[in-house]
Amino acid sequence: MRLPFLFILTTVMIDAMGVGLIMPIMPGLIVEVQGGSLADAALWGGILATSFAVMQFLFSPILGNLSDAYGRRPVLLLSLFVMVLDYVLMALAHTMWLLLLGRLIGGITAATHATAGAYMADVSDSKEKAANFGMLGAAFGVGFVLGPLVGGLLGELGTRAPFYAAAILAAMNFTLGWFVMNETVTDKTRRAFDWRRAHPFGAFRSMARIPGIQRLLWVYFLYSVSIYVYPAIWSYFTEERFNWSPQMIGVSLAIFGSMMAFVQGGLLRHVIRRFGERNVVIYGQIFDFVGFSFLAFITSGVLALILTPITAMGAVVTPALQAIMSKMVDDNQQGELQGVMTAVNALAMIISPMMMASVFAQFSREGAPIYLPGAPFLVALGLMGIGLFIFLRTKTSVAS
Question: pTM for the whole thing?
Answer without folding.
Answer: 0.79
